[in-house]
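Quick one before lunch.
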Amino acid sequence: MPELSAQELADGVRSGDRRCLARVLSLVENGGAGVRSVLPKLATDARQRSAAGSVAGSVADHGARVIGLTGSPGAGKSTATGALIAAFRQRGERVAVLAVDPSSPFSGGALLGDRVRMQDHATDPCVFIRSMASRGQLGGLAAATPMAVRVLDAAGFGVILIETVGVGQAEVEIASTADSTVLVVVPGMGDSIQAAKAGVLEIADILVVNKADRPETQVTVRDLRSMIALSAASSAAAAWKPPVVTTVATSGEGIGDLVRELDRHWSWLTASGELDRRRATRARDEVLALAFGAIRERLAGSLLDDLAAQVADGRLAPHEAADNLLAAVLAQGAVLLA
Ligand SMILES: Nc1nc2c(ncn2[C@@H]2O[C@H](COP(=O)(O)OP(=O)(O)OP(=O)(O)O)[C@@H](O)[C@H]2O)c(=O)[nH]1
Ligand SMILES: [Mg+2]
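Model of the guanosine-5'-triphosphate complex:
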């Protein structure tokens, strides 16, 4: 592909050129200066939409609907994602999928597996599937994922599905990029207890017990419901009570229920103002992740090594060292993002 200007790339993304889209997502993934010139040209779209939306007030004003699926390895996230693609395609939606692997710096075998499971849709021009791994970009995947969402939104996808592997803090961060977060667990208590420990239950808007063709499904559903009831009691203000849905993703059983709950959640999000709140929080986290990333980069270096050695020797107190470090960076003037 010849070297395209930022404007050409942005125009390409908006007109649905898949190679331009892939190229811009690579820029997002790799970080660096390229993405900085393209994003503002895409953002114009969203600004125009929000200006038009204040008049039209239609559903489309909210832009892409972002749905996150998280859960332990092998729980069936990709299979469920494949089934959701089919369900949303039936409604005529254009669907994008981001498979995000927070644990590996490079795309690993699991993502290849995802492609296989989603390959029914690989030739559909209205479906775009992309895996993303951490490549040391500023702010990490926590910053890159919302950026990728912006790009896919500008490309006109109505639904963006984000799959993240695992149940831990990184997944919580990435999942919180979504408007609706779906936690996928399998029958048996291991998954749900782990999720509860990692604080994932709190961020789940919908719980899916997948592999409901296995024993212990109903026990798991009951246990999850009581865990939710307990945490709902501790936060009495919670207006949304996460439903528990059972699915057999491989056969599509229960996927209709999942879509219905997703729609119900979306209605609640838009009607309650929670959607705007979540998106504002998301943008705040995105900005902070970028700013912290840039500051971290500036702080690392020989001065830090020097100060660290002095702290290790007991010649300098850690607070003094930190003050010195911050003073040195601030003296350099504004910390601009590359
Ligand atoms: N019995 C049964 N097997 C299922 C079901 N859903 C998925 N599987 C199988 O479980 C395995 C893992 O499914 P995936 O969809 O790849 O799971 P995943 O959560 O995306 O896995 P990772 O991305 O590797 O974390 C595959 O062999 C699926 O065919 C189900 O409802 N019932
Ligand atoms: Mg998967």
